[in-house]
Amino acid sequence: MDIQIVMQQVISGLAIGCIYGLIALGYSLIFNAVDVVNLAQGSFVMVGAFVYGASFVRSYGWPAFPAFAGLIIVMAVFGMVCEFFFYRPLRYAHVRTKLVALLALSMLLNNLALIIWGPYPMGLEGPFGTKVLSIKGATILYQNIYIIAITILLLILQFYIFFHTTLGKVLRAVAQDKDTASLMGIEANQAVSFTFAYSSILAGIAGMLIAPVFTIGTGLSQLGFMGFGACIIGSFTNVSGALIGGIILGLFEMFSASYISSLYKSAIVYLLIIAFLLMRPQGLLGKKEEVSGL
Q1: What does the DSSP assignment read for the chain?
Q2: Could you report the per-residue pLDDT of 54-99, keeping only the tens digit for each?
Q3: Cystine design at 173: which of 49, 69, 181, 293 (Cβ 3.0–4.6 Å)?
Q4: Where are the domains of the chain?
């Protein structure tokens, strides 16, 4: 086995795994906050890719950094609006009702994207184009290194926010017990709204990072399935587990495509997810009692 090829595959697998991990983080954060899976998370990724790539970069001609800043603002507001109209009115409804509402939101977003941006996929050149880095004969795309670096920076920022700020303490308190947090004077609605905003930002960044790798189109919403699978492998209730699940999924997908068949890589990945559902439904870092809300 050629070590250079393996190195390329590992870096590519880590890059796509980071994308899946960011999507999974969004799932995990919302699940911990409101005990429901956001079935529209994949569509949030699609919206982020369209807003950044189709609107800010292609239509308006913005450079990468202003487009990134604009994406953060738009996705934060977008997440709060979705929470206000599609989750908050159903806060005390049955979980099945919430799931149907979020599924309806996903379908609405996909169809709105077709109306606003059209049905044809669009290409987007990344900030590094097709530049590559050669390490001992291995050819590595700068875009993959960029994806991994951005993910690491986001994790550091998230760790700081969650464990070293008042906002982070509020979010963790609401995630543990919303009713008790409310009795202690914490405004649960605001915390949930911020969680949706932050989850939406993560999805938007995932869309921004994946847009140069794939084409921008409504098909990007299908990445939500991979983020969901990453949570099944890692854990819905453990944020670190969700990210680890994404990386495992990315590496498994890459090596499956290379050494088994690129035609059947999706089927092989889904078999892995099914295996976890059957043998360890709580995920690698989850506890058995934590999956009851699913």
Answers
A1: --HHHHHHHHHHHHHHHHHHHHHHHHHHHHHHHHSS--TTHHHHHHHHHIIIIIIIIIIT---HHHHHHHHHHHHHHHHHHHIIIIIGGGTTS-HHHHHHHHHHHHHHHHHHHHHHH-SS-B----TTTT-EEEETTEEEEHHHHHHHHHHHHHHHHHHHHHHHSHHHHHHHHHHH-HHHHHHTT--HHHHHHHHHHHHHHHHHHHHHHHTTTS-BSGGGGGHHHHHHHHHHHS-SS-HHHHHHHHHHHHHHHHHHHHHT-SSSHHHHHHHHHHHHHHH-TT-SS--GGGGTT-
A2: 999 999 999 999 999 999 999 999 999 999 999 999 988 999 999 9
A3: 181
A4: 3-219
